[in-house]
Amino acid sequence: MSETQSSLYRRILLKLSGEALMGNESYGIDSLVLQQIAEDIHEIHQLGVEVALVIGGGNIFRGISGASRGMDRSTADYIGMLATVMNSLALQQALEKLGIPTRVQSAIDIKEVAEPYIRRRAIRHLEKGRIVIFAAGTGLPFFTTDTTAALRASEIGAEIFMKATKVDGVYPADPKDDPSAKKYDRITFTEVLQKNLRVMDATAISLAREQNMKIVIFNLMKKGNIKRVILGEPIGTVVEGIVHVE
Length: 246
Description:
9 strands; single chain; Carbamate kinase; nine-stranded mixed sheet
């Protein structure tokens, strides 16, 4: 069996949290973490997997927190969108240093630094082996980058939505506060909403449920985990329509 055939998926959408880019820093981008992420993405790209990315902006600015401090929510969200563009450009450079052709597509017009988001062009880039980074969210306020990821995954026909975070999956309670909390290996979209688990915002979960899109939530900080998900290893938490009992 060839390396390409060993991957379970042909096309994926990988969502990276902005906070993960900070590493141990209190703000911004840790260059070593950025390099590790780029190397992990390079590893799955070599398997022949078509990779699209969405990156949060929480390491620079979060729209919701800006609004909570008195800033108009729409303005705060637009600032957050610009933060995602900054992260996208940083990751693009890290990937291209490894020899991977990469395109950043922005939902807001910043033609000097990124292409406009055009669905068919994005798919064509993926088919040609280029990594596509979707920046600036949906281009509209009040929508999170999780919702953006679910939307873009649906638009490009991704076979899986991988949410890479700083935690190793979904718990019924914060394990730091409740040491008895055990990680879910599998859970349904409906359970996530009913239990208010805050895996991601309700709009993203509802869209994924409507599209019957498999989601895997896993720890980005452990090197090689992206590839492990691609190869079907049981890590993180799988969120899907029906939990199959084995």
